[in-house]
Amino acid sequence: MHADGSLAAWEKSVADGVTVLHSRHVIAEPGFHVLKLWTLDPALVLQKLVVDTGGLRPSYLGPPESAVHTAPRTAGPEGSRR
């Protein structure tokens, strides 16, 4: 979380009231993928998660919330919905 421990990074986080972190991942195959997040510290709050699949335009607050899209669910072995 504190990869950049510089005074400038701390001052920006305090002034903006947020810490913005970026990571880049390569997905080998198209299709359904699962993103898992774990709570490592009870004092941390994840306010927004942005997944840029291309075309993200820069903005101060990030993109607006998108509509919820879920993959179709399939029946489990006992016929119940998963």
Task: Chart the SSEs and their pairings.
Blueprint lengths: L6 H10 L66
* Uncertain residue ranges: none
Quote the beta fraction. Answer: under 5%
The run of helices and strands is: H
Number of helices: 1
Label the structural class.
little secondary structure
User: What do the pLDDT scores average to?
Assistant: 81
Q: Give the overall shape.
A: extended
Question: What percentage of residues falls in helices of 4 or more residues?
Answer: 10-25%
Radius of gyration using CA atoms only: 18 Å
Question: What is the compact description of this entry?
Answer:
This protein is largely without helices or strands.
Provide a descriptive summary of the structure in words.
With 82 residues, the protein is largely without helices or strands. The chain has one helix at residues 7-16.
